[in-house]
Design a protein that fits this description.
about 45 residues; mainly alpha; 2 helices; about 90% helix
Length: about 45
């Protein structure tokens, strides 16, 4: 969370917005990473 807040601050995004959006972004990122890993394992 700290890294996400720091990135948001560097981009000029308010901390409250980052805190609100980060969990959803993290969920999507983890899902996509898992999909890629599954495809690589199947190859």
């Amino acid at each position: 969370m700290t890294a996400g807040l720091a990135l948001g601050a560097a981009l000029g995004v308010p901390a409250a917005a980052v805190a609100e959006l980060l969990p959803e972004i993290e969920t999507i990122a983890v899902r996509k990473i898992n999909e890629r890993l599954k495809v690589e394992q199947d190859d």
